[in-house]
Specification:
Elements: H1 8-29, E1 35-39, H2 46-62, E2 66-70, H3 77-84, E3 92-97, H4 98-107, E4 119-127, E5 130-135, H5 143-152, E6 158-161, H6 164-176, E7 182-185, H7 189-198, E8 203-207, H8 211-215, E9 219-224, E10 252-258, H9 263-277, H10 280-288, E11 292-296, H11 298-318
Parallel strand pairs: 1-2, 1-3, 6-7, 6-8
Antiparallel strand pairs: 3-10, 4-10, 4-11, 5-8, 5-9
Signal peptide: 1-27
Keywords: Signal
Organism: Ramlibacter albus
Length: 324
């Protein structure tokens, strides 16, 4: 005896009805276990500090712990691949920055993911404040003096980079100033800072995690990449004020999930991220790092990602950087 076959139209109606009630049910059930937040940098850098602050606040709203996991290296590709291959269930998230999503496609030929197709945008987090730092033992107090000193000592100075913004921005800066200096790459700002303080590298473009060392007199701040002067250091000029060109790239951070993340989960996470960005403790942490919180809807984050991909490709070519 053959099983009863439902008419095609009835099967379609039942499917639509099932999907209609599944969305709200999924939103109510999620999350029922801890959530992983993958950070593509080592502990101690700006991205890590901001991510941990946001994760702690989101944990309160979600009712489940958001656990930060650091997967540093390969310009964010290790972390990106871990999120790309995770189940799209909302339990593995990506604290992504321009390094993994904009620079990696420019700097690497064999990237293992598509920044647009392989991830689901959830919301914008903000923009990193970058500054030009110099070891205090270097006989310079301004960006112009740094350039003069480097030109007087061709090939003798070294600069560190802990992320893609540092790589591209310093390449553009030194190229524009006709400065010959050795590039020393690091997996993040934290390990780079140790060598900058020790004088093994003499200058760097880096994030606000280095600001305490300026207050202690161990480092000097010569300029900021921010479009306006930082309220933390109002005497530090912008790049144009210091005699250099402004940088075209935006050093941003945003929250993503794997591709095909269910819409109810995206909406829940977006709400909790918005709430976290309004948390006074989160904002205080960000302000100390000169990190500007900037929320964005999933749609706005997706459009910004595409626009910045084009900007980074242009900047990479201008800096003479080739994919390897």
């Amino acid at each position: 005896m053959r099983a009863l076959q439902l008419p095609r139209i009835l099967r379609f109606v039942l499917l639509v009805f099932a999907l209609g009630i599944a969305g709200p049910a999924l939103a109510q059930q999620y999350p029922n276990k801890p959530v992983r937040l993958i950070v593509p940098f080592p502990p101690g850098g700006s991205a890590d500090v901001v991510a941990r602050s946001v994760a702690q606040s989101m944990s309160q709203g979600l009712g489940q712990q958001v656990i930060v996991e650091n997967k540093a290296g390969a310009d964010g590709m290790i972390a990106g691949d871990a999120v790309k291959t995770a189940p799209p269930d909302g339990y593995t998230l990506f604290f992504a920055t321009n390094t993994a999503m904009n620079a990696a496609p420019v700097l690497h030929k064999n990237i293992t993911y598509d920044p647009v197709a392989d991830f689901t945008p959830i919301g914008g987090v903000g923009v990193f404040g970058f500054f030009v730092f110099a070891n205090s033992q270097l006989p310079v107090k301004t960006l112009a003096e740094l350039f003069d000193h480097a030109r007087a000592n061709p090939g003798k100075l070294a600069y560190g980079s802990g992320n893609s913004t540092s790589i591209v921005a310093t390449a553009l800066l030194t190229q524009g100033a006709k400065v010959n200096a050795t590039h020393v790459p690091y997996k993040g700002d934290a390990p780079m800072t140790l060598d900058l303080l020790a004088g093994r590298v003499q200058f760097a473009i880096a994030t606000g995690t280095l600001l305490p060392h300026v207050k202690e007199g161990k480092l000097r701040m010569l300029a900021t990449m921010l479009p306006t002067r930082s309220p933390l250091f109002p005497d530090v000029p912008t790049l144009p004020e210091a005699g250099a060109s402004a940088m075209p790239m935006t050093p941003w951070a945003g929250l993503f999930g794997p591709a095909k993340l269910p819409q109810p989960v995206v909406e829940r996470l977006a709400r909790e991220l918005t709430r976290a960005l309004a948390d006074p403790q989160v904002r205080e942490t960000m302000e100390k790092l000169a990190f500007a919180p900037q929320g964005a809807t999933p749609e706005q984050l997706g459009e910004m990602l595409k626009a910045q991909l084009a900007t980074w490709r242009t900047a990479g070519k201008a800096a003479g950087l080739e994919a390897n």
